[in-house]
Tryptophan--tRNA ligase (Magnetospirillum aberrantis SpK), 330 residues
Amino acid sequence: QQKKRVFSGVQPTGKLHIGNYVGAISQWAENQDAYDNIFCVVDLHAITIPEAIEPKAFRAKCLEVAALYIACGIDPAKSTIFMQSHVPEHSELSWLLNCVTPLGWLYRMTQFKAKSGGSESVGTGLLDYPVLMAADILLYDTHFVPVGDDQKQHIEFTRDLAQRINTMFNAGLVIPEAQIRASGARVMGLDDPESKMSKSTGEQKKGHSIGILDEPNVIKKAIMSATTDCENEARFDHCGPGVKNLLTLYEVMSKQPREQIEAEFHGQGYGKLKKALVELTVEHLRPVRERYADLMNNQDHLHDVLKTGADRARAIAGTTVTRVRDGMGF
Ligand code: ADP
Ligand code: NA
């Protein structure tokens, strides 16, 4: 019995945060042995926000994300790690898919609406983002896509598109499923618990996010100044969104049952919860930061990992593109 295939990725933009870690990367690492894993640094996605891109910084950011995957526990001996742009089949399949994707499907995507803000001067790539994402996933006959809650709609889109291609061209694409954590799939901003913690905001605003690579004193400041409500409730289903966010982070990192966490912090004042979360987060991220520093001291090794990863990814992706091309009559 062959292992099921997992594919996922993170965009090399902004400041990677605990939401990316909890919602995505930690899940990849935890389930690594159960699946045949492919983890991609999705650099072609990153350029859909061209303002964010300055060539030198971009190159460094791409390598940073690859190093972070490994530092967070992805083992290159078990999982394939590669840079999206090193495998040209992503661009090729995405064009083939583009030509049969109804424009209306793309206009419905909430991420596009939010990121474009209704402006028509944004790059076409921003609208087209879900097609490239569908190509990423479908290229590898992916069964499961472990992602945060914000990507749900894009996975639904990918499933619909795969079904459409299979019906039109008998391409035999595997229909993927999202894998979304029951708790921690949508970490909220510490400064604004009404909106999702995000990389771009975290880069601009102190106190918005906890960076995966933040120093202990920065983590402490962010958590201690997190927005909470004035009640003293520390129960998951009875508190405001700011406290729920802190409780959820505590839950995911401590792996304790909710009842135990509530028993510990309910009616105590939020200072106690915040201090405990600072300690837990600092200890949790310390080894990641240390491994990251080691990896950045030996970048040749990182480049080797990415080369090996791209070679393996390309071999798989090539067969899928051939299937779709054949189906279309090329
Ligand atoms: P961002 O949205 O922060 O720019 P990406 O779009 O690169 O990050 O997403 C990388 C992964 O992290 C995706 O699986 C996404 O769903 C997940 N993710 C992003 N933000 C959060 C969050 N606040 N909580 C949980 N998961 C998140
Ligand atoms: Na996102």
User: Anything to note?
Assistant: The beta strands are 5-10, 36-41, 80-83, 144-146, 177-179. Residues 5-181+299-328 form a domain with the Rossmann fold fold (CATH 3.40.50.620).
